[in-house]
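Researcher: Re-running this chain for the archive, since the previous output was lost when a drive failed. Same request as before.
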Amino acid sequence: MSEILAIFEYQFFRHAIYAAVLTAILSAMVGTYIVTRRIVFIGGGITHASFGGIGMAYYLGMNPFLGAAVFGVLTALGIEYITQKGKVREDSAIAILWSLGMALGIIFVFMTPGYTPNLMTFLFGNILSVTRTDLLLMLIFCLLLTAFFVLFFRPILYTAFDPEFSRTKGIAVSFYRYLMSAIMALAIVMSIRTIGIILVLSMFTLPQITAMLFTRNFMHIIPLAALWGVIGAVAGLMAAYLVDIPAGASIIFFLTLQFLLVKAFVTLREKAARKEA
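Model: Regenerated structure tokens:
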């Protein structure tokens, strides 16, 4: 117990805990939109395509996460545009942009003169290297996103699940869908810092499907997903430190284990309720 408490004396570990909590809250809001709208594959496309922006930014001597953000947003808007216009099948467009982004990222990293960056940091994340500036940016984005969801919850919900009805009510469906695509891309890129490209999509889906074992109400899923996300992220981070394993992978492992245990509990409870009936 004393060993566990002692690690909180280190600033880098406290920063990692804060980052895990903020990532869980961020992914709860955006991830609920992704899961309930059934566009997880789009999230995967944005995640992997953003690697192209990382490679280009390295080649141009820019901040790699800035490049990922720009490339991710453009990819998200491109997918939404193709989906609305219907000239190319959605899954085909995602596959094209997904593979193109990864290919461009590898090419530009290879072409970058001098020291070749460690790609493992971007692929699997490095939550223990999160700085105070990173935390501040994540906090500001979380607060802005929370305010946006509170103020525009109904248009977000209506345009996501019933665009035709939304149009009859005079809601700008295209505007909200494009805006949510951009927000989705920014949230994913911010989470790459902590979880990594390979694992980030799990953070945006596992807490949500765990929450959906208890409710299907969009408004109720968000806080429940945030709770499960925080529990899994903190538990995974603690285990990563104690066992000396990669933090990002440990967090996803605990989120998965958490889902399986909760699923088993809910199933047993439902069976017991049926026997009593």
